[in-house]
Design goal:
The protein has 322 residues and is α+β, with helices and mostly antiparallel strands. It has 2 domains: 2-123, Probable inorganic polyphosphate/atp-NAD kinase, domain 1 (Rossmann fold), CATH 3.40.50; 131-317, Tumour Suppressor Smad4, CATH 2.60.200.40. The protein contains 8 helices and 16 strands. Helix 1 runs parallel beside helix 5 (109-122).
Length: 322
């Protein structure tokens, strides 16, 4: 099998020695080409070329969730066609690795490579659904290119936290859980609309949901991890369904304490709940509008400010080797 290994050399939890071991292990079973990413967006270019060359059967992404997101968007540059496109395999190399862990892979690059080789020998794979976010016609964001996401997107408060973390990472700070916690506190203290949200969720055939402060769109569960603890914002979300949404309409000090505790104690059976929480399951098409520009993130990648985003849940979008 001809395969392309896309490596993010700055991935948080992999070293040069680890990469050499992985490359050697994969090359023993595959006709392997290796490409190191050199800049933001490079992984997407490499995966798109692999999808178009007609020879590559598998693309392996070694890196964090951001690298995997780029590879997925490259593979799906011309749209989903699971049987015609190369399959995807992932080897976790980031700080959180939500997509890889949601697939059931070990959160260790060496162990995950062993699991990948076993899957290739057994010829096991699954076809997963993905989320697609695009600009909304008739709004200022209409011309924003569509982009796929693998596990989550956020509009509002949580995207602001992601943006703050990225600013620190650009200054050389490591992405740690303590860094995220500090930025949550700072985002909360600086949030102007925490008691009166500006987001409206609209979908065909249902009444709009108004005044959301936070909106998390999940394509799978868990939503994220704190160390080894999974956090479930939308426990029913699945790669086999469309998209789930958790919306919060109030972020007062008491509400934040309550919902933070619920998230920390969440499980596959129980997520955040309460008077100011809205949970929606298996949505295929919907739009989030805001009265003011708000931060937007996908798969942990901050994408700037938006006033409107349209979401589509696409079932059976991509083959993944697991």
């Amino acid at each position: 099998m001809r395969a392309l290994l896309v490596v993010n050399p700055t991935a948080t939890t992999t070293s040069g020695r680890t990469r050499d071991v992985l490359i050697h292990a994969l090359a023993s079973d595959l006709k392997l080409d290796v490409a190191m990413t050199e800049r933001r967006g490079h992984a997407r270019e490499l995966a798109r070329q692999a999808a178009e060359d007609g020879e590559t059967e598998l693309v392996v992404a070694l890196g964090g969730d951001g690298t995997i997101n780029e590879v997925v968007n490259g593979l799906l540059h011309h749209g989903p066609a699971p049987e015609a496109l190369p399959g995807l395999a992932v080897v976790p190399g980031g700080s959180t690795n939500v997509f890889a862990r949601a697939l059931g892979l070990p959160n260790d690059a060496i162990e995950a490579t062993g699991a990948l080789l076993d899957a290739l020998h057994r010829r096991t794979e699954r076809t997963v659904g993905l989320g697609l976010a695009s600009g909304t016609p008739g709004t200022d964001d209409a011309g924003v290119p569509a982009r796929w996401f693998t596990f989550c997107a956020g509009f509002g408060f949580d995207a602001g936290v992601v943006g703050r973390v990225e600013q620190h990472r650009e200054r050389g700070r490591r992405s740690t859980h303590s860094l995220y916690v500090r930025q949550v506190v700072r985002q909360f203290l600086g949030e102007q609309h925490r008691t009166q949200g500006t987001i409206t969720l609209e979908r065909e055939g249902a009444e709009p949901v108004h005044d959301l402060v936070l909106s998390i769109v999940c394509n799978t569960a868990p939503w994220t991890y704190l160390g080894n603890r999974p956090v479930y914002a939308a426990p029913a979300a699945s790669f086999d369904t469309a998209l789930d949404v958790l919306g919060l309409s109030r972020l007062s000090t008491a509400a934040v304490a309550r919902y933070a505790a619920q998230l920390l104690m969440s499980s596959p059976e129980r997520g955040p709940r309460g008077r100011h929480a809205v949970s929606l399951h298996d949505l295929t098409d919907f739009t989030l509008h805001s009265q003011v520009p708000l931060p937007f993130q996908m798969d942990g990648d901050h994408l700037g400010l938006r006033t409107s985003v349209t979401f589509t849940g696409v079932r059976r979008a991509l083959r993944v080797i697991v």
